[in-house]
Structure formats: structure tokens, C-alpha cells
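#lab-general

N.A. 3:47 PM
ok so I finally got the sequence cleaned up, no stray characters, all 257 residues accounted for. can someone with queue access submit it? mine expired

B.Y. 3:52 PM
send it over

N.A. 3:53 PM
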Amino acid sequence: MARERSPALWLHPQTSATRKMPVCHRTLLLLWLLHFSSVYSDITDGNAEHLKREHSLIKPYQGVGTSSSSQWDFRGSTLVTSQYVRLTPDERSKQGSIWNTVPCYLMDWEMHVQFKIHGSGKKNLHGDGFAIWYTKDRLHPGPVFGNQDHFVGLAIFVDTFRNDLQGMDRSFPYISAMVNNGSLPYDHGQDGRSTELGGCSVEVRNQDHDTYLAIRYSKGRLTIMIDVDDRNDWKECIDIGGVRLSKVSGLIITVLK
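B.Y. 4:20 PM
back already:
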């Protein structure tokens, strides 16, 4: 699905990311844009017609997480500047997160994330990855990409490190989705395979061009599209119906290194 990039999608925020690993590898995640809107049609090009600014993170970023009027908070190694948000530096054993403090009451919604993942490690030995959370509770530090296990809500994992050496039927990095009612644990040993709704392999490390992720929830259907090959074209990663999500208290992005 070809798309036209709006000016808003050319913003340049930066972030770094990591997850729990027995060995210290390095990865840098650069977050460029978080664009949240209500749903009216198919996957959009990021235009601001239905933009929900209270849930969006848009350049410039002065005051994010520090001013009394800020609708975002952050912790760990996250660095916020006017030009970028960096979740972790390219160093060992770092974690960072940024989350929206405004409860979301939309029944149908769409989110665009512009990001970059960079690191000086070997091609297949970058940090563990990052996650986007749409959950009932605000961030509680834990073992699942920096957040708590047994969460309630939706998690999108961009997993850059293979833990399951038996699961050679997929390549990494790998994007997957998980919905939890609080009763399910995330299985690191199998890279979350037993609880994932679906997923796709995607090369997002050390790209020279912009990389994009679109997440859409409408009428019980979860759709995830990617644009990572500099062709200005959405490609389907996940499309599954029968997904039930409740209104949530926060939107979180976490990175584990």
C-alpha cells in the first residue's frame, strides 16, 4: 500500500533500546515520531486531521517529561532534547522508557511510530529490542522488555535478539504482538512464541533511511503495517480479528539493552 509521507513524519527524534540478556550487547534506538489518531478510514499517511495531540509525541520536544504541563514522563537512560528522544545510548546494560500520562478513552485508534535502531555490535548481536505498550497500568519496571510481566493490555515487541535457538523458522529482528488479561507470562526462552498473535521478520537495524511502524485497532481488529525498506510503501505484518482491548491508562515505549 503506497503512502505519501506528510511533513509530520519527517521529524527527527532519537532513542535507544535494550532488553534482558545474559550477555551485554549494545543497541541504539532512535525514536523519531509517535503519532496517535482516531480511526476513520484505512491506514493513513500520518496527516494531522484526526491527530490526538494529548497522545502524540511530536518535535520539538522541549519540556517533555520535565514541565508541569507535560503529558509524557520518562525514566532510566532516556534523554530528551528538542530534536530527538533517545531511550538508550550505545552502551551496555541500559534501559529507558517514555510513556503517555493521559488516559486513552478511544475505542478505535491508529498509531504511527518513526524510529531508528543503531548499534556498534555485530550484525546479529545487538541489544534485545524495544516494545510499545497499550496497557491498563503505567510502567512497572520488570523483565519483559523493561516492563512488568502479567500485564493487562497490548504489547508490540520489536525483538532484535534470538533467545530460542531451536526456533530457526524465523529470522530476527522480529515484530510480534501479544494481548494479555494479566494471566499470561511472557516466555523469553521462546521469544514469546507461545503467546503471540502473529508477527513478521523485518530488518530494521542500522538502516540509513527512515523506518516506520503503524499500529491500528478498529472494531476488534488489530493491524500492524511496516515501512522499513525506503520504498514509501506500507507492508502488512499482522492482521487479526477478534482482539478485545479495554480503555487504558497509558501508552508506553520501553527499551532494554
